[in-house]
Amino acid sequence: VCSSDLKSGSRKAAREAFRAGQARAAMTAEAERNNIKVSGPVLVPIVEWREGLTLAEAIVAAHWAGQGDPTSVVVTRNGERVELSPSESLAAAELPLEPGDEIELLP
Known about the structure:
single chain; alpha+beta; 3 helices
């Protein structure tokens, strides 16, 4: 085996690893765009979006870990932030979420 064969094999392996990394990054970015991001004291910061997922279901799926109930819930959709008080949050519990929505739970 000559050294040029080894170098060629190394370059091929490096190209394949690079392509695999790019594919994983693209899949991760796509998953983030299609899921619900939940910030605040939660145990599950990414909730898988599905048709019909509501605000209340996403909050339950995120597993709130704060003391007491959240004092405020912020929903961001397409860059537009809407802050909800506890009473407004209850009224909006059945709000259907869309892929990429973000929820911030404030203690």
